[in-house]
Specification:
It is a single chain. With about 240 residues, this protein is α/β, with parallel strands linked by helices. The protein has a single domain, classed as 3-Layer(aba) Sandwich (Rossmann fold), CATH 3.40.50. It is built from nine helices and eight strands. About 40% of the residues are buried. InterPro entries: AB_hydrolase_1, AB_hydrolase_fold, Sec-Metab_Biosynth_Hydrolase. Keywords: Hydrolase.
Length: about 240
């Protein structure tokens, strides 16, 4: 199967390097993306918004030509959901890694401190303890050394959706810094950040206890969790 991997903020395609081996060993074709403005620290970021990242991912889907599985980490979840909305007939499953589908009018995070056209990786003090679980000093240093400022527009632009067939695309939510039980509590409470999620007809929850960056703290386990969702999807596709 063709699997497109969309990184979260401050990261490029290489951030998936320790996650992909189980997928490739199982014979799947893996396409990690580097999105516009994330090519390097010196790349231009002015004028790049959420729609540009959705369109770049959409281009990758269209170039593959067949059915695709999308994986999005953190802010990448909003991006893959925008693609699901544009190509609901092409996406076999959307896998959200410590993230979820962003609904109409929502923004990924407009509270992150921006510097001009970009949002640099903030000081660790801005994150909660649950974000940083298992991210030891060495991993933090390695993350900061590789971090690329995020285009401000991607963080602050509202999501726009138009095709309700997006709710027919199966989803897997890999929870890390929160549990499926916590997520269910938010759903039961009608929390605004899960309004889009409750409308998806086929959702599974998988818990991988660690912090917000499992591609660094538990990459092998994340790869296996993604592989399990892909294998389930492949089985359902063959059965149909």
């Amino acid at each position: 199967m063709d699997i497109i991997l969309v990184p979260g903020f401050w990261l490029d395609a290489s951030s998936w390097s320790e996650v992909t081996p189980p997928l490739e060993a199982a014979g799947h074709r893996v396409y990690p993306l580097t999105l516009p403005g994330l090519e390097s620290v010196d790349a231009p970021r002015a004028g790049i918004g959420l729609r540009d990242h959705i369109d770049a991912t959409l281009k990758a889907v269209d170039e593959l030509g067949g059915p695709v599985i999308l994986v999005g980490h953190s802010g990448g979840g909003a991006i893959i959901h925008g693609v699901v909305d544009q190509r609901p007939d092409r996406i076999l499953r959307a896998i959200y890694v410590d993230s979820g589908p962003l609904g109409e009018g929502g923004v990924i995070n407009d509270e992150l401190p921006a510097d001009g056209d970009e949002v640099p990786l903030p000081d660790w003090s801005l994150f909660g303890e649950e974000d940083l679980t298992d991210l030891d000093d060495g991993l933090r240093a390695a993350f900061r050394a590789r971090a690329i400022p995020q285009p401000r527009g991607v963080a602050q632009d509202p999501q726009h959706l138009s095709d309700e067939r997006r709710f027919n695309v199966p989803a897997t939510i890999i929870t890390c810094e929160f549990t499926p039980e916590q997520l269910q509590g938010w759903i039961d409470a009608g929390a605004p950040q899960v309004v889009e999620l409750v409308n998806i007809k086929d959702v599974e929850y998988v818990h991988l206890p660690t912090g917000h960056w499992p591609q660094f703290t538990k990459p092998a386990e994340l790869g296996e969790a993604i592989l399990a969702a892909v294998t389930k999807t492949a089985g359902a596709t063959q059965a149909s």
